[in-house]
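Format notes (please read before filing issues)

Several people have asked whether sequences and structure tokens are stored in separate files. They are not. Every record keeps both together, in the order shown below: the sequence lines, then the token lines. Line labels are part of the format and must not be stripped during preprocessing.
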Amino acid sequence: MNKCYFLLVLSLVFASCSKDEPGDVILSSEEINVNGTKYSESKNSFENTYSALIDSLNANQAIQIIAEVDHAANARSVGRVLSPTKIVFFGNPELGTPLLQKNQLAGLDLPQKILLFENTSNSVYAIYNSMPYLESRYGLQGVSTLSDIAMALENIVTTATTSTIKRATDLSVEEGAGIITVNSKRNFEDTYSSLRSAISSNQNLSIVAELDHQENAASVNLELRPTKLIIFGNPNLGSPLMQNKQVAGLDLPQKMLVWEDENGTVKISYNDPVYLQQRFELEANQTEIDQISMALKNLATAAGGN
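Then the structure lines:
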């Protein structure tokens, strides 16, 4: 199993993440405006931008790439056409674990990820979730590493795109927005094992990565209650979402988090597909959203023994 590393410290920023950061550019209404995100329009080709992104991540020994997903290739595998679209997951537990210590649910958006895509006009973009988004969604106010992560992401993206960072009009959401959590009747290990078995036994699903956040915290001498993430996908359902809006690839493949709270209660959490439908304006994909919602509900039910 790969170690989950969250983000390296590239430099320090002392401004609050809940406020605009230095150099923020507010998007005009005709530009990409996905709530909670920042992005950069690359001056380079898609392949050169992606290569530069990977090179930038590999250049630092403190960072590890967890997974790379080629959404366009996955779409082709099920007979669909999608413009170049790739996502990379990466990070460093010294910065990510403090977020999880404050709220284990933050594991739904960790490790960090950057989506790279080329649209039909041949414009290339790199987009990622901002720290104000994570801070507000998971109630992470006061976690000191947020500012370090924010600057690290900005440096990585600007290096790859050789361009400036822009931001969505709104960077914050309500705490807990779009998260579904169910209690399990099983212990932690049995719950996770049951979830993994339910996913791996489904011929339409493919496991992309598994991350043991507790184990990774221990690797940097930090404590964390049992917390594991599994990332998996179904191109038959995910590809139509990205054919509609490529930016939807930022929250694909699907993720489910199994975690044990301070009272010993085991929980299964995942992103509500209806929330993702609203975030990425996927009204035309109601059929896929309904199917994904039912599939995730069934997986959580099976894993929790409910």
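For reference, the curators noted about this record: Residues 286-304 form the longest helix (19 residues). The chain has ten helices and eleven strands.
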